[in-house]
Amino acid sequence: MTQHEKQVNYLGPFITMVFLFFIVGFLTTANTQFQGPLKEAFLAGVGDLKNTFATLITFSWFLAYPLCGGVGSSWTTKYGYKGTLIRSLFIMILGLGFFFLSSWFTVQFPNANLNLGSNVIPFGFFIFLLGSFVVGASATILQVVINPYLTACYVKGTQPIQRMAIGGSANSIGTTIAPFFVTGIVFGGLAMEDVQVSQLMIPFLSLMIIIGLVVSILMKLSLPDIEGTKAEAGEKLEKSVWSFSHLTLGVIAIFFYVGVEVAIGANINLYAIEQETANGPFSFFGNSSLTLFGINFAIPALMATIYWGGMLIGRLVGSSLSTVPPRVQLVVTTVCATILTLLAIAFNNPWLLAAVGLFHSIMWGAIFTLSVAQLGKYTSVASGVFMIGVVGGAILPLLQGMLADALDGWRWSWFIVIFGELFMLYYALIGSRIRQSGETV
After folding, report:
1. d(Cα 184, Cα 193) in Å, to the nearest integer?
2. Rounded CA gap, 417 and 397, in Å?
3. Is 289 helix (H, G, I), strand (E, B) or coil?
4. Fewer CB within 10 Å of terminal CB in the chain, N or C?
5. Residues 18-29: tens digit of each pLDDT
6. In the beta sheet, which residues pair with residue 298?
């Protein structure tokens, strides 16, 4: 950061990025929380492959990350940060439109189904998957801008990892609210088997209007580019961004991080439902639902909220850890998350998995900060490359769903999370060491 850059007032743009991070978190988790309800509403005729098809919702969202990360980088070079943000939000509105269309189409054409052997799948489900991919593409491009901007924009009294933690806190507020939004507002606290597809239309139409208002406000805001964080239009970079080993291994680390984060956040409710079916209502509350603020919530959704809420608490704490290096933060959190997951498997207890969110909270900021260290003008391109790793959020939950179907239960499938935590521990201890001098970038 040059002295000139420090003189630019980035507080307004910083707040804008934090708000956009909230939107990304809210929509990402809201999307995953539709797995349980849509498993009943859309997939009643799928038979023994319900878990596999339900996790396709998450898979289609995160599939956008490796396919669209490069688009975000090229748009940033061509249109700048603000132009890229506006274009990505228009894509988000389009994706939400597909969500609306999926519900409308299924209601209007209830007999439009695809028959795969004995499995009957409504065409509206595939429209929903398309919407999930499109909104995921928007979230991808947004993060290609948000992550390097939070790292590089100078706000007096903060360090890069603190700004990432503050942005992550806003992201976590969105992820914490989302399960309540889906179960309490969209579906009115109904039991999964009582959910109707028609209940999707108005909420998604409302979200389209809200994002449209965000676009109109953003177009009037000043959002200056940051010098030295991206190549100029037409400029050719001297080397491949993959030549930096700490970035390459960071992409793999984020693959496992997002994979295990989403696996727990998206599948813990399915695991909890399985436990309720086998053992009856959770004795902690004495029944299968809880009333908060006059709204009835299913306990499985509450577990997801506790998980994402733990991430919020952890990120709020992380925003004050200005003296603790990101490498140390990553070592401590991966070790704790591994221990909790092992205990959850040993005791077959989903509540212990919910507690893992506290330690997943600051991993993203730590891995991203370590991955883009000393990259200079390669930072923007690296951010796009970094998004490739987010496909872990598509692959690992889907593999876990397939494994749960194969093992006839979720308990042992959580070893996927253990493997991911151990790789992140390796990255923190060894893989994040910079082996190529920043003087060449």
Report:
1. 15
2. 10
3. strand
4. N
5. 888 888 888 777
6. 289
What is the pLDDT averaged over residues 244-262?
91
Give every CB contact of residue 201 below 8 A, 6+ residues apart in sequence.
Answer: 100, 103, 104, 107
Please check whether residue 270 is in contact with residue 35, taking contact to mean a CB–CB distance below 8 angstroms. yes
- Dist. CA 84–CA 69, nearest whole Å: 12
Assigned CATH topology for domain 3-440: Growth Hormone; Chain: A; (1.20.1250)
Contact 230, 75 (CB under 8 A): no
In the Cβ-directed half-sphere of 397, how many Cα atoms lie within 13 Å? 35
Identify whether the C-beta of residue 357 lies closer than 8 Å to the C-beta of residue 153.
no
d(CA 399, CA 168): 27
φ/ψ of 298, rounded to 5, equals -70, 140
One-character DSSP codes across 200-261: GHHHHHHHHHHHHHHHHHHTTS-----TTSSPPTTPPPSS-GGG-HHHHHHHHHHHHHHHHH
Look-up of token digits 């809201």: 30
- Spatial CA neighbour of 364 closest among 161, 225, 153, 199: 161
CB atoms within 10 A of CB 344: 23
User: Nearest Cα to 28, choosing from 123, 104, 95?
Assistant: 95
Q: Count Cβ neighbours within 10 Å for each residue of 213-231 and write b for 16 or more, e otherwise.
A: ebbeebeeeebebbeebbb
- H or E stretch including 57? helix 50-108
Identify the DSSP state of 411: G
Helix %, strand %, coil % for the chain, to 5?
Answer: 75, 5, 20
CA distances from 296 to 134, 262, 273, 292, 436 (A): 31, 25, 16, 6, 55
pLDDT at 190 over 50: yes
252 within 8 A of 389, measured Cβ to Cβ: yes
Mean pLDDT along residues 326-342: 93
DSSP designation for 436: S
For the chain, the structural domain boundaries read 3-440
Q: Determine if the pTM surpasses 0.85.
A: no
Element at 161 (helix H, strand E): helix 160-180
pLDDT number for residue 419: 94
Structure tokens given for 375: 């990259």
